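USER: My hope is that you can spare some time for a protein that puzzles me. I am handing you a single protein, as its sequence and its fold in token form. Walk me, if you will, through where the backbone shape changes along the chain. The protein I mean follows directly.
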Amino acid sequence: MAVNRGMKIFLPENKPSKMSNLIPIISLPGILFRMDKKAFVIGITGNIASGKSVVRNLLANMGAYTIDADLTAQDAYLPGTPAWQTILETFGEDLKTRDGQINRSKLGRIVFSDPDQLARLEAIVHPYVTEAITEQLQYCTRPILVVEAIKLIESDIAQHCDQIWTVAADEKTRLDRLIEHRALSEEVARNKIRAQSPQEEKIACSDRVIWTDGSYEQTYRQTLDAIDQLRLPTSYSYKQEDYIVETMTEADFPWLRSVFEQQTGKELAYDQFFQLLGAKLVPIVKRGGEAIQCHRVGIRQTLALLTNQFPLKSELMESSESLRLLQFWLQGAYELLIVPAISMSSREAWHAAYLPGEDYVKFYPKASFENFLKEYGLMIGEVWIRPMNNCK
């Protein structure tokens, strides 16, 4: 049974932990914090195209703080970092693009066709990844922290995990996903699969296996059951006066599904709904227990981008107040909230303490920030940003 965040969190009796069995939750200015700030750490692993990111996003929609080790590794490739320089020295200066970044596609062709070269790259990047993730583990204030990493079991990060989950799918399913969703040729897709150790080795070292061969709903149910069996919370909320913003629950599904259908203008198949939950955050604003608005938020590590709200304007609250609630809900897991400039005027942005997109350089690496915006067809001058630390 899921645990209410306003209650105490009970940890599984058969799992030794550094935490005490009863951890009190306190409420400070409307937001809930764990007094000991020690999260239950779940490590997610699995081979390429197994569905790891879907499970990670489902857990984020249950309030977990999530880390993608692959994205952390990409940050190690950024110009000026020690790993960036070593990669160029090891694999050739011709990997450098005009803006100084490493051509990851070209590097991938080198390492995925040669296990020895792949091992050389991992030896350069993995120490950086381990250091970066270990630091995030220390400062997490959410009750659940999730680390997704293909090489999790082989890394030092595994020793920080309270449980290790393997996300698995049969080889044909993974091959089809690489061809259909990543536009790879069958030969390239097979080479990527063969470059990795068999997923059975990961399964043998895991506390839990999430199979994704079936529907998105089945993946959701397995994920929810796994959290429930650990007796960890499946919701996260922030309340202020008459309003509350919180993670979606099963009781919200009919309303949320109808919202998605109104947004797209077409009927949504049931499993498509669960697919959306595995792609973005969907916190819901409520008043008196009734849902009045939902946010759709794209995430990349500690960046959060508001992609849309529905309805755009609620008769019960101002848009600026809705964004303020969202800020507090995101705090503790995300460093920057990014809002498209068309969502608010310069005057509104000023009063809400948002900064021009160009100010991101004070808070985040250039390539990571810009690449995240490009995924959504945005440029730096087309967004406002709001630092989340100590937001008021």
Summary: The longest helix spans residues 115-139. The two ends are 34 Å apart (CA to CA).
